[in-house]
Every structure is written in structure tokens, then in C-alpha cells.
């Protein structure tokens, strides 16, 4: 069950040759690496990234990422049955930012609307789904995004290393799931960067006077004899951004801050001038006979599902955790403050634009500039287009930034070649991975119209959101109770006692009983004497241990029931091809499993180990288990509705990933020869080793 029950590698032989091989493969997929700690950081020996990011720079990165290519190209989920999946859960973001300095939040928080999604989403969603209720759609979507943000904030503060969702799932779930998440994120960021780059050139052309106004060497052109339209401008922009990211995280974040400032002026212009026009004209967009909800509540909720993707971006920031000066404080505050301010400013823009022009008269491609033009302000088109171009450029940088860090994290764990883990000593940036990422994205942007592939970006994002929420449940109820010790570490400290659990080997599952040193022998002898002198205490301890094991078993099955229930409920509600009786049966079964799992998790106690898991003293996700389960439900529902074509393409990419893992990753994993020891025994081993530094 996803590595829930104690040590994923525990167990012995005796299954036969075939059974051993199958068991070895399954256990290999479930092996989990050690959670971040000062001890792990000291031992790793990997070159470290530069800790240059402050909370203000984090916010600048977060706000520039609140946009996804799937939104820009219109590849969005438009469900008509979203009422149960977006059940209002009013959770205040003040939980995470109540101690934040408002003086620091305000200036960069205003720039959080620079996500280019707002430039194109307003018209499409208002025309087809929300009408004047667009503001409420943004609010509901913001609340839904906050659920994932809360989960990310806790894991980012507990496990502040590069890798984002890949890193968290490797610690909490297992190597197999972590590999799939990392592989999906590689696809997400590659296609995302290429898609954004292809969207810049037409907007840039508008600043020069029209669609064909770019210089010849930057203009799109059709290759004779083919249907391929190349985009030199997109490829050049990707390479320029790649070069900037290779210079250093501090320098690139400085450029992000400049872009944020430029977009700040554009968005302030839209809100202030648009508000003035609205009061001058009487807010004609709200004086309609169809009322505030022309498409009903279902239309408003369908609009929320669409604009939800405008909030995506904070997950990319988690991949820079290793470069944050104070991750326990800055990561949660940066994510929470930026997301809340982003929601507020999205709502302000939608209030103004919907009030200037009736929703049915909006231009779906350029809603903001056309709204100003309809009031005689043609010159405003250039200001707004400039804002869209700078927003897309910053989003391009945010799309390329995380992928080298994902590759680096996977390489550090042995799942990819060491080439990707190389960090430049001068810039303290994974330069080789960054260059490779940039070249691939540039080639894709140059040759391919990636708009049809942009839906695949959403799969990677939503899958990561789902696994992070599941990881929160695992962390709280069944956190890993074993620690992997490398062979190199064991060799450096000498013999350890016979409670070392197991060593995984692809040829079979072995149990290694190592000779016991005198220090440990004395300790074990003392415990045996204590058991003779105080039998009642020992009996009570054994009962408590049995009770704890039973609690973990119930919690593991409950989490499994939640996952199966969510999948059944969302699949059944979206399977229009099934007979009505079958759909109701599947939905009913899923709903019962989901409800039973939620009730069970609410009734049992959370694991005490959560208080010492990873780096402590950071953000704690509230309302567990309700909040993570709601997050899982929303994200799985959105994934289910992405369409068959998208899932076929994603499945092909995942098959390639499985092949790479089987051929290389499984055989080179750093956990291949690891010995798993219970947490309490691991602490004892570390304290008695000469390498341990308190």
C-alpha cells in the first residue's frame, strides 16, 4: 500500500526464485529515501546551490509563475458538473502569513497579477461560462488553489531541497511514484517553456504595428514543401533566458524583479483607469437583463475550473527550496502571501473589465485591450500588450528555471546519470542541466506548434498536486519509521547490531545480520536486564507498540480507501458513455469509500513522529485530513476531464519513462544497496558514529 506499512524493504526470503524476483521489483518501487535534516545535508557530499533567495525574491518568482500555457492556448478543463468537486472550503491564508511584514508584501504583491493568464482568461471565461460573476469564479478557484498551496507550504518547509513534488513523493510514497512524478514534471516544464515562447512572438509583433511587423529573421515562416511553421523569435528568446539562468539565481531573480515592476505599472493602469471609465459610464457591463449569473451556478463553477490554472506556479518555486536563505519561514510565507494577493488582484481586474463591456461583447483573445479601445482609448492597447509580453517573458523564465533542479535532484538520487547533478562552482547553478533544458525547449519552440500539446502541462501539474496532498496524509498518519543507511556510511562506522533490517538486491531480498559491537552489546544487555527487573513496564510498552501498529494499519487502509474512492467518484461522474445505473453505482461506491476513509482518519490520532519529521518549526498545514482530501478530489477531477487525446500522449511519454527507469534508474539508485534501520535505532547508530556531528 504505497509503502505505508513500516519499512518498504523489510521482509525475508523464502518466496522462491520467481517470488523473490517479483518481490524484489515491487519493494524496489516502494523504497523511500531519508527525510531532509542537518545530518543528511552533512552526509550527502553533493555540491550545494547558492542560498541567495529572500522572501521578496521568492514572491517575485511565485507571482511570475501564476500562469500556465494550457490557459494561454485555451486547453482548459470545462466541466459542467463541478459543484461537488469545488465544495467551498473557506480557509484563510492569514494562517500562513499572519507574522509577515506587510511593508514587504504590498509592493511585490501588487505585481502578482502579471501572470499572463489574466490577459486572455477574462474574455473567454466571461463569454462562455461566468458572465458578470467572473469575480466569484476567480475567488472559488483561488480557494481551490490555496488547498494545494497549504500542502506544498508544509512539505517545502520540512524538506527544503531541490526537487519539489518529486522530492516529497520519494520521501513519503516511494521510488516508483517519485520517478513518475519527476518524469511528468520534465514534460511539463519542457512543453510549458516552449508553449510560452511560441506565444510571445505574435504579441511582440503587435507592438511593432501588426502580425507581420517583426524583422524578417524573427518572423514566423513556413518551410516549403511541409506544414511546419518555424518561429525563430521563440527559439532565440528561450536561449537568451537560458543564458540568463546560467549566470546565477541571484542575477536571474533580479531580472524577475524588474519584470515584476514593469508589469506592476501596467496592472495598476488597468485597475485605476478602468475603474475611472467604469464610474464614468455607469458600469454598463452589470446593467444586463440576464442578471449576475446568466449561465447559472454551474456556469460560474465551470468558469472556476478554467481559471484555476491561472493560479498554478507556486509548485515551481518549491524546486528552488535549496536556494532559499530561510526556507522554513520564507517558502510558506512567500507562497501564501503571493497566492492570496494574486487572487485579490485577479478579482479586481475582472471586476473592472466585466463592468466596462457586456460579457457577450468581449473579445476572447484580447479582452482587456479591446475593452479600453471600445471607450476610445486606442493608445492603451500598446501599454496592455507590453504588459502581456513582459508577463510571458517572465513566465518563460519561470518555466525553464525548475526543470534543471528536478533533473539535478533525480541525478543526485542515482536515477539519472551524474551529468545532470553537476553544479558550477562559480555560479552555483546546475549549468549543464540548464543548457540542455534550454536547447531542448528552444528546438521544440522553433519547429513545433506545441499548442496541441499544452494540455499535457496540466497533467504534470495536477498529478504533482495530488501526490503532494497524499504525502501530507502519509506524513501525518503513517510517516516512514525506517531510515536507509548507505553502505559507505556503514563501512565508515564499523559493525552495527543485528537489528539492521534489510538490504535490497535485484537478485533477491536478503537480510544482513551484522556483527554486534561491544558498545551496542552492552546496551542490548542492559535492556534485557531491565525487562527482567520490570516485566509490567515491558508488557505495557509491548501493548503500546501493538496498538501503534494497529493504528498505522488502519490509517494506511483509510488513506488507500480515500484514493480509491476519489478515483471511482470522479471517474464515474465524468463517464458519460456509461449507462446511468453503472455511473450511479461507481459514484456511490466511490463516495462511500471516500466518506469512510475521511471519517476513519478524523477519528484516529495522528502519528507523534510528525513533530520531528524533517526540519521542524515551519508551516503546518491546517484542517488535516479534510483539506488534503479536498485537494485530492479537486485535482483528480480536473485530471479526469482533460480528455482522451491528452491522456494518450501523456501515456506514451510515461511508457518512455518506465523504460528509462528499468534500464538505468532502477540499477543505479542510491537506495539499491541501502540497509534500512528503524528510526530509533538509526539515531543510536548516528550518535555512536565518529562522523555524526550533533
TrEMBL record:
- Keyword field contains Transport: yes
Question: What main location does UniProt list?
Answer: membrane
> What does the UniProt keyword field contain?
Membrane, Transmembrane, Transmembrane helix, Transport
Segments spanning the bilayer are 58-84, 104-122, 134-155, 167-191, 229-247, 254-279, 291-314, 335-359, 379-401, 429-447, 453-478, 554-577, 583-604, 616-640, 646-664
Q: What cellular component GO annotations does this protein have?
A: membrane
InterPro entries annotated for this entry? AA/rel_permease1, CAT_C
Pinpoint the Cationic amino acid transporter C-terminal domain residues. 619-669
Instruction: Mention one GO molecular function.
Output: amino acid transmembrane transporter activity
How is this protein positioned relative to the membrane?
Answer: Multi-pass membrane protein
Where's it found, cell-wise? Membrane
Presence of keyword Cell membrane: no
Similarity comment: family membership:
Belongs to the amino acid-polyamine-organocation (APC) superfamily. Cationic amino acid transporter (CAT) (TC 2.A.3.3) family.
- Quote the protein name from its UniProt record: Cationic amino acid transporter C-terminal domain-containing protein
